[in-house]
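forwarding from the other thread:

> can someone predict this with zinc ion?

sure thing
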Amino acid sequence: MTAAQAQKEIIALTEKINYHNTLYYQQNRTEISDYEFDQLLEKLIQLEKEYPQFKQQDSPTQRVGGTITKEFETVYHKYPMLSLSNTYSEEELADFDKRVAKGLEGEPYEYFCELKFDGVSISLTYENGVLARGVTRGDGVRGDNVTNNVKTIRNVPLRITGKNIPPAFEVRGEIFLPKNVFNQLNKEREDIGEERYANARNTAAGTVKMQDSTEVAKRKLDCYVYSLLGDTGSSSHAQSIQMLESWNFNVSQTYKKCKNINEVFEYIRHWETKRLELPLETDGVVIKVNSLEQQERLGFTAKSPRFAIAYKYKAQSISTRLNGVTYQVGRTGAVTPVAELQPVFLAGTTVKRASLHNANEIERLQLHIGDYVFVEKGGEIIPKVTGVDHEKRKSNTTQPITYIDKCPECGTKLIRYEGEAAHYCPNITGCAPQIKGRIEHFIQRKAMDIDSLGERTIDQLYKLDLVKSPADLYDLKREDILKLEGFKDKSVTNLLGGIEQSKNTPFESVLFAIGIRYVGRTVAEKLARYFRNIDKLANASYEELVQAPEVGEKIAQSVFEFFRNPENQREIQRLRKAGLKFESDLKEPEKESDILANKSFVISGVFERYEREDLQDLILKNGGRILSGVSGKLDYLLAGDNMGPSKREKAEKLGVTIISEADFEKMLKGQ
Ligand SMILES: NC(=O)c1ccc[n+]([C@@H]2O[C@H](COP(=O)([O-])OP(=O)(O)OC[C@H]3O[C@@H](n4cnc5c(N)ncnc54)[C@H](O)[C@@H]3O)[C@@H](O)[C@H]2O)c1
Ligand SMILES: [Zn+2]
């Protein structure tokens, strides 16, 4: 390589890596795998070493990849939050060990191994035993103050008690979404017709930076801590971990002190597949020199400590034959292609099927039936196809995949909505999985909660032509149910009782149950509270809908369309006749005054004396209106603690008056 070529390459790599960093840290998205990313970075590191004169000002090798945002207050870290140098090979790990030995000039040392938890790092500052601040890593020097969001994480102690607690100290840890929580979240999203989230790490990162902490609380984030900083009297990392445990911090019980690098290798091999059984995603092992005094002597580079390194596991991949593609139709009519594979053993289990997501993905991979494909088990439960083993393709035995154009269940021609990757079967009322899916959605715990009905019973009711829509459930007779396999007098009574009982379900649950696209449980509650009964909601114009608290354009459009569909209108009529609740039990806030008439509000942040919902009620009771976002039409932005600076900026720019909780109280009193 000539110098000129090297320069060109360095510039190109810098640009490329910075691009992927921005995607990863700002938008929580990825276009390439971590492995590919790390390879690019490694190449740049090597080139910069050889040609330091071409190193760019904004070189990603010199700094931590993240940034701060404008949505939160910026906080400077007391101790910088650095990255970790990483490797995928045991040889390089052995080199690391040699560097450590050399740096410590032959004196004995030990390692401490932990798993590398794949989430977002957080710095927790405790003052007098009380959690004072939770700050993201940001650019390593400064981060976002996300304390209110951190406080919703149950495993993060808000106050610690015990002996010898230092007056101030900092704890570092990783916030993550446990696998089961992540899967549940995706199930709920699929249920209401939202796209699945791609991976748990990105979702956790997005959640930590949400503006509304009540929403964060619902996401059930978790946190493991792995580092203690400050004047704690500890002399080794192991001792720090012990202290953290004694103060009831959540420490993963997967660590191990290792006497030498060979024990480290053993640890790495031990966890290679075992880690897949853990409740969260991990992507490697972090190896730290145990003695804090030795850590200090080894010191830091601009970007990472010299006393620690991350050994990353390559995602486990295997090649197997693609026997065919089948297609699944979901409740919302969305079609998902599934790869049917020659069964193969991979990382602890036999893999027979893998998700192919959608037609674009099949095209991107250029898949043929009969191909040998690489299957990978990443963090997700469902394995994925990552590519074709082109060397094994024989043109006479493989054939290109033609994506289906008709529904595999009912034969209706599939459609594609603009901007969406999935194909849909539009036959809402005549397509079996859609019908059964709607009933399953209807009876679930968070909806009508009819637990005497299950998937199998629904299937039978459907096949016997007894139930084709939720309203049919309320017409079921004893003699109908007796036709079902395994149903005797007692179980029939049970089932009928459960259906009868469901008539007491409150309006917000009914609203969720009827299955309006994008209306999840939380949105249903908001709508029920704001519109109070189904008629007001059904007759609301699009403009009125977007004005409802926290209803955006997508939801407003979907609700509007739902109620204009004659089929849906008929179904609601029938459910209403059956005696379901279509009116909120919550007392309508009694009109108190007109003091806020013609005034519009947006509520943002956290308040000292009121919950947000109380404030909403107060505004409505006194004749005011609530808008969903800051715009030129808005009169007042009611701002609590931790409102993002960007909202404030926008309001200021548009000339919206910003008021505090106290100002608002004065306003109510007419002062
Ligand atoms: N695919 C992409 O486009 C893309 C883009 C940017 C970054 N990335 C990935 O992110 C990595 C770079 O991210 P990084 O700089 O945050 O480094 P890193 O995530 O590889 O390592 C540092 C982080 O590890 C975490 N960690 C987890 N368990 C730990 C433990 N037990 N002890 C100490 N720390 C622990 C901490 O949060 C720490 O901040 C890259 O290696 C790459 O894999 C991927
Ligand atoms: Zn269909």
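Residues 329, 407, 409-410, 412, 425, 427, 431 surround zinc ion (ligand 2) (CB under 6 Å). thats all i got for now
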